[in-house]
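Here is an idea for our session: we take a single protein and study its fold together. Which protein we use is up to you, so please pick one and set it down. Once you have written the record down, we can walk along the chain together:
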Amino acid sequence: MNAKNISRWIRAGLWALPVSALVTAWSTLEPQPDQERDPDAWARFVSSDSYHLSHLWGSTAGTVLAIFGLFALGCCLANSRVGGLALAAMVTAAAGTALLLVPAVISTFATPAIGKAYLAGNQDVMDLEFPGSMTAAFLLGLLLAFLGNVLLGIAVWRSHQLPRWSGVLWAAGAVLFYVLGVVLGQATTGSSLPTQTAGALLMAAAGGWIAWSGSRQVPVEPDLPAAGTA
């Protein structure tokens, strides 16, 4: 692949960052009812078409777009003064985000089926337990995604190639989303908190700033002539 095409793919990937954060924020706008306290409301909520749509495009598609954007950001910074840090952060964040596809897919496809089975009178379905390996994958994914995104924010700050404060906003958004949103939400209500939406929106703003600036920074090189041609 020539340099011109590579530059175009990096630019497209950078714009995937704000898009992924926006659709993720959309998927967290309406927290689901507590499964233990009100199983009927929970079952109706997760079996609705709006739940399935928001998780299909928000959680699953948003996660895929995030991985694309993370690779593009790492490549954008690869030749900067913090290339080593940026690439390590990219791998860490992408690995963690990929692991988070496990609960995203379960929430998108398995959870609605459980809700419908409960509403149909099969109340024992609420006693289903997923393997502990799924919980381990979820926690490891959260840790890696959080650390990788914070390190990417630091890399942007130190790169002198992208707007410094966009890196600060990106790292702050990661703290809001993962720590004060996902982790705190799972430990308290078992659902998403407003901080999760706020963190995603902050990362969307930072990602848009990065993409706008990065699209101007990534050079579009002319196609090189083939070997042996004039």
Q: What stands out?
A: Residues 86 and 101 are 23 Å apart (CA to CA). Helices lie at 3-27, 39-46, 49-76, 83-99, 101-119, 132-159, 164-188, 194-217. Confidence is low (pLDDT under 50) at residues 220-230. DSSP finds eight helices and no strands in the chain.
